[in-house]
Amino acid sequence: MSMSLADARYFLNRMIGLFRRSLDSLRTRGWRATWQRIRVHTQPLPALRGPALYLPGQAPFTPFSVPFDPEPLVSIVIPVYNHVDHTLACLRALAAHPPLARCEVLVVDDGSSDLTTEWMPQIQGLRYEVRERNGGFIEACNDGVGRSRGQYVVLLNNDTVPQPGWLDALLDTFSSVPAAGLVGAQLIYPDGRLQESGGVLFQDGSAWSYGRFESTEDPRYSALRDADYCSGAAIMLPRALWDELGGFDVRYRPAYYEDTDLAFAVRAAGHRVLVQPASRVVHDEGTSNGTDTSTGIKAYQVRNRDVFAQKWATTLAAHPAPGSVPSPALLHRHQRQVLILDEAVPQPDRDSGSLRQFNLIRMLIAAGLHVVFVPTRREHAGTATEALQRLGVEVWYAPFLQGIGPWLREHGPRFAVVMMVRHHVASECLPLLRSYAPAARRVFDTVDLHYLRERRGAELANDPGRLRMAERTRERELAVMADCDITVLVSEAERVQLQADAPQVRVELISNLHEVAGAGAPFAQRSDLVFVGGFAHPPNVDGMTWFIGDVFPLIRAELPGVRFHCIGAHPPPALHALAASQPDVIIHGFVPVVTPYMDEVRIAVAPLRFGAGVKGKVNLSMAHGQPVVATTCAVEGMHLQDGADVLVADDARAFAAAVVRLYQDEGLWMALSSAGLRNVAEHFSLDAAGASVQRVFVAP
Question: How far apart are CA 66 and CA 662, in angstroms?
Answer without folding.
Answer: 56
